[in-house]
Write a structure and sequence with these properties.
Among the domains are: 7-85, Alpha-helical ferredoxin (Fumarate Reductase Iron-sulfur Protein, Chain B, domain 2), CATH 1.10.1060; 284-397, 3-Layer(aba) Sandwich (Rossmann fold). Helices cover 50% and strands 7% of the residues. The protein contains 21 helices and eight strands. The chain has helices at 15-19, 21-25, 32-44, 61-65, 72-85, 91-97, 99-105, 111-119, 121-129, 144-150, 169-175, 177-189, 205-209, 213-232, 242-255, 271-280, 302-307, 312-318, 346-363, 373-383, 390-397, and strands at 163-166, 193-195, 236-239, 269-270, 295-298, 324-327, 367-369, 387-388. It has a four-stranded parallel β-sheet with strand order 2-1-3-4, with helices on both faces. A four-stranded parallel β-sheet has the order 6-5-7-8. β3, α15 and β4 (269-270) form a beta-alpha-beta unit. Bound molecules: iron/sulfur cluster (2 copies).
Length: 398
């Protein structure tokens, strides 16, 4: 959990700047030390208004690497919100920020209509004109029946403590509900009843990244109250998206303390970490799993590393006898949510991801594995290889 930010906790060691992928890719970004603690001193006096903070991708490599525990990215987001407050929000930031609401509105529309409407060459030119680069990958909507299946009513377990609520997040809800269904299958195999409450909304991270702080705050309040309601019934919340787990489980407390219920961080478990704990407690038996054909390259998403719980998806898959998997450990994929989709950011994202894409190529893998949907989209765009959630592979192997 983050503590209150004090710029004087920064010792100016510049470790964060060394680990910042955006600072390495463009001279237009002044880097985390400058945009975070250094400029915070000016901002506290109302003296600074730096446009460079708009280049921060919120990947959190600065927070992960800072030896003094300064939450640099969180304060970059606050600085960005202050910078954006009195400026007109670009259409591209409205489209990416409210992409979850768009998905929800379109929940009864067949996928072929949505995907054609969004991805035909005229639409791509129009989107490019409003700031979404026509070269960038856009995720595809999943078939209507899969989106509906994820949200169909399910029964909780009869024993208290044996029900889990899935917080699917926008990516899984609209683009990859199959991953959510795979996780439900695994949790049911481990003896849980799984529900997918209708009360959850977008975690607000895409809004925060577009500087839309008030809209993000409203979502923080709604999700926090829903998590608290479930916690009162002894129901744990699990999310297949590391960014949603980070946002709801940690960032709300730092950014919107007035919206969280109680003084503790809202407890949300990242799904692979939750499943790994079930393996460790003997509720799932990996010895009974069959290895999958081919070689796998595992990529740890930045927001999973920011959660500070290791690489649970990799740990699970490598315990399956005969599974050939390598942790390529080569940094950020560059897409960083919707960052690499935006004009003027696409090249930065491509350069950032180039080390990862080269490492995946050198690994000889024929399939990539990562917990984050945005990373999977970026990796497929950068390497041409398919990418899956580790728990989808586990569901197939068990
Ligand atoms: S969040 Fe990422 S892009 Fe932003 S300053 Fe930190 S390391 Fe750099
Ligand atoms: S790593 Fe931490 S202490 Fe070092 S310059 Fe960055 S914010 Fe300051």
């Amino acid at each position: 959990m983050f503590h209150h930010f004090n710029p004087d906790e920064c010792t100016a060691c510049t470790v964060c700047t060394v680990h910042c992928p955006v600072a390495a890719a463009t001279p237009r970004f002044r880097g985390p030390k400058m945009t975070g603690p250094s400029f915070e001193r000016f901002r506290l006096s109302g003296l600074h208004d730096d446009a460079s903070v708009e280049y921060c991708s919120n990947c959190k490599n600065c927070d992960i690497s800072c030896p003094s525990g300064v939450p640099v990215s969180t304060f970059n987001m606050l600085a960005r919100a202050a910078y954006c407050k009195d400026r007109k929000t670009p259409l591209r930031d409205l489209l990416t920020g409210f992409s979850g609401d768009i998905g929800r509105l379109a929940r009864h529309v067949p996928a072929f209509l949505l995907n054609f409407g969004m991805k035909n060459s005229v639409s791509r030119l129009l989107l490019d004109a409003v700031g979404l680069d026509k070269r960038a990958p856009l995720p595809s909507f999943a078939p209507l029946r899969e989106r509906r299946r994820l949200f169909r009513p399910r029964r909780p377990a009869s024993a208290k403590g044996d029900t889990v609520a899935l917080f699917p997040g926008c990516f899984i809800s609209y683009y990859e509900p199959g991953v959510g269904l795979d996780i439900i299958t695994l949790l049911e195999k481990a003896g849980y009843g799984v529900i997918v409450p209708k009360g959850f909304v977008c975690c607000g991270l895409p809004l925060l990244c577009g500087g839309l702080m008030e809209a993000a705050r409203k979502r923080a309040g709604r999700n926090s109250r829903e998590v608290a309601r479930l916690a009162e019934q002894g129901i744990a919340v699990v999310s297949p998206c590391p960014s949603c787990a980070l946002m709801v489980g940690q960032e709300y407390q730092a950014l919107f303390p007035g919206e969280t219920v109680g003084s503790e961080a809202t407890p949300v478990h990242e799904a692979a970490a939750f499943v790994l704990s079930l393996v460790e407690r003997g509720r799932l038996d990996l010895a009974a799993a069959r290895p999958l054909a081919g070689r796998l390259a595992y990529h740890a998403p930045c927001h999973l590393r920011a959660l500070g719980m290791g690489r649970p998806g990799f740990e699970i898959l490598r315990q399956i006898p005969g599974m050939r998997i390598e942790d390529v450990n080569a940094g950020c994929c560059g897409l960083a949510g919707s960052y690499g989709m935006k004009k003027g950011r696409y090249e930065i994202g491509a350069q950032t991801g180039s080390a990862l894409f080269a490492a995946i190529g050198e690994s000889g893998a024929d399939l990539c594995v990562s917990e984050c949907g945005s990373c999977r989209t970026g990796i497929t765009h950068g390497t041409g290889l398919a990418a899956e959630h580790p728990l989808s592979l586990l569901a197939r192997a068990l």
